[in-house]
Specification:
Layout lengths: L1 E8 L8 H11 L2 E7 L2 E6 L5 E8 L7 H12 L4 E8 L8 E6 L1 E2 L4 E2 L4 H17 L6 E5 L22 E7 L2 H4 L2 H11 L11 E6 L6 H8 L7 E7 L1 H6 L8 H9 L7 E4 L5 H14 L3 E3 H4 L10
Parallel strand pairs: 1-4, 1-5, 5-10, 6-9, 11-12, 11-13, 13-14
Antiparallel strand pairs: 2-3, 3-4, 6-10, 7-8
């Protein structure tokens, strides 16, 4: 049985979003207590027949204390398809009024959390559907670049490997007004309940390379895909970290290989942003040749059917 776990830090001094989304979720469905983690009852969504959704409240943001939480989550939820860490987004140049789905990885150490592209697609489409239905026109939905906030808390990027299930951040950003928006909290809460609604649909899985941190072309490829099968993107390796972590060197091929191996079901294409410089594109091309998959410019992605994805 498919199992999704969503984790919410309920200390609003530490996380200004998770508590609002958890409150909204409690208003949307019946929840049954099962056992305790971190002094809080673990709740399970009632009435599901072919899946489980568990709700976990914590006193700290999980990615800020993997040493503490990874063993607990592995023991209690080692069978989970995904652990969704519901939290906030902020940053000096971050766009406001956004929802983001972010896979986790550390390009510096070449450590990537497992990820199912069907799940990231399901989250993105669920959020976008609820955003439109709720009339929240001021917000936008994004697939955010792969990274891990835990590195900033002092942990090594390799610590990501401590957590066995896939870890995906689901966020609201990027201003205090956005974090406290009750409609945004409700949109996110409702979308979480839809995580497996599209899981049976076949997809064309792609690895995205280059572009900016919130690269609209990669997001739009998923949200606007009318191809059969539709595009599903998971790990997104943005230009700024490719540059800072030396992914123009052939020695980094092993890390790109690890990234692909972390994607459930593998990939059918590598998609690069047109502005990606030749040395970085060259290393990605070596991977594509090794895997026997095509390289495709982001400008061609949306218009091309999978059978036409060639270069």
């Amino acid at each position: 049985m498919r199992h999704a776990v969503f984790v919410f830090c309920v200390d609003r001094e530490r996380d200004p979003v998770a508590g609002h989304v958890l409150d909204a979720l409690k208003a949307e469905c019946a929840l049954v207590p099962r056992f305790e983690v971190d002094g809080h009852s673990v709740l399970e969504v009632a009435g599901l027949h072919d899946a489980r959704i568990s709700i976990v409240a914590t006193n700290e943001v999980v990615s800020n204390d993997y040493a503490r939480y990874a063993p607990i989550l592995n023991e209690r939820f080692g069978d989970a398809c995904v652990i969704g860490i519901v939290n906030w987004h902020e940053g000096a140049n971050a766009p406001n009024a956004i929802f983001s789905v972010q896979t986790t990885g550390d390009l510096g150490t070449g450590t990537f959390s497992a990820v199912d592209p069907r799940i990231t697609r399901g989250l993105l489409l669920g959020i976008e559907t609820e955003r439109v239905t709720s009339g929240l026109d001021s917000f936008r939905t994004y697939l955010e670049a792969t990274h891990w906030s835990g590195v900033k808390a002092g942990d090594a990027g390799t610590r990501l490997a401590d957590l066995r299930p896939s870890a995906v951040d689901v966020e609201i950003g990027s201003s205090p007004e956005d974090w406290a928006n009750p409609v945004a909290a409700r949109v996110l809460a409702r979308s979480l309940l839809q995580i497996f609604d599209r899981i049976e649909e076949p997809v064309h899985s792609v690895l995205c390379v280059g572009g900016v941190h919130f690269e609209p072309s990669f997001t739009n490829a998923v949200l606007q895909s009318r191809d059969r099968p539709p595009i599903a993107a998971s790990h997104v390796l943005p230009n700024h970290w490719l540059v800072s972590d030396g992914y123009d060197q052939e020695s980094r091929l092993v890390d790109l290989r690890a990234c692909v191996h972390s994607i459930v079901g593998g990939i059918q294409s590598i998609v690069y942003h047109d502005k990606l410089k030749a040395p970085f594109k060259g290393v990605a091309r070596l991977l594509a040749e090794e895997l026997g998959v095509p390289m495709l410019s982001h400008k061609k992605l949306r218009a091309a059917l999978p059978k036409d994805i060639v270069e």
